[in-house]
C-alpha cells in the first residue's frame, strides 16, 4: 500500500499512490492510515487523485479511518476522480465528508515518503 504523507502544520496530507482501493488492499490501507496519523492532532486530507476505482471494501476502509480519527481529527477528501466521486455520490457519502476539488498546495521539498 503506497501512501505518501506531507505534514503541512495543522494539516496532514496523505496521498494514495494506488489506482484502486478495493477488498485486496482495504485492510492494508486502514493499517497504514492508522500508522501515518498516529501522532497528528489536526485535520487529515486524503488525496485520492490517483484512485480510479473504489469498491465497498475500500469505501468501508475510508469510513473506518474517519471513525478512528474521530471528530477532533476530521478526515477530508480531495481530488476525487469521476468514478470515485460517483461512488461517494451514490452512497451519499459525499454528505458525510468534506470534499475538496484539489489537495492543498505543498511547499517544495515538504514531501516525506512514508
TrEMBL record:
Residue ranges annotated as transmembrane are none
Q: Name one GO molecular function term.
A: anti-sigma factor antagonist activity
What range(s) does the STAS domain occupy?
21-114
User: Which Pfam families does the protein's record reference?
Assistant: STAS
Q: Which PANTHER family match?
A: ANTI-SIGMA FACTOR ANTAGONIST TM_1081-RELATED (PTHR33495:SF2), ANTI-SIGMA FACTOR ANTAGONIST TM_1081-RELATED-RELATED (PTHR33495)
Under what name is this protein listed?
A: Anti-sigma B factor antagonist
Amino acid at each position: 500500500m503506497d501512501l505518501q504523507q506531507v505534514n503541512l502544520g495543522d494539516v496532514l496530507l496523505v496521498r494514495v499512490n494506488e489506482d484502486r482501493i478495493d477488498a485486496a488492499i482495504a485492510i492494508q490501507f486502514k493499517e497504514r492510515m492508522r500508522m501515518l496519523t498516529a501522532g497528528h492532532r489536526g485535520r487529515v486530507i486524503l488525496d485520492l487523485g490517483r484512485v480510479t476505482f473504489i469498491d465497498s471494501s475500500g469505501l468501508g476502509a475510508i469510513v473506518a479511518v474517519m471513525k478512528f480519527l474521530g471528530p477532533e481529527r476530521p478526515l477530508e477528501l480531495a481530488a476525487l476522480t469521476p468514478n470515485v466521486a460517483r461512488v461517494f455520490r451514490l452512497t451519499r457519502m459525499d454528505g458525510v465528508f468534506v470534499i475538496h476539488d484539489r489537495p492543498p498546495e505543498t511547499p517544495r521539498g515538504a514531501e516525506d515518503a512514508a
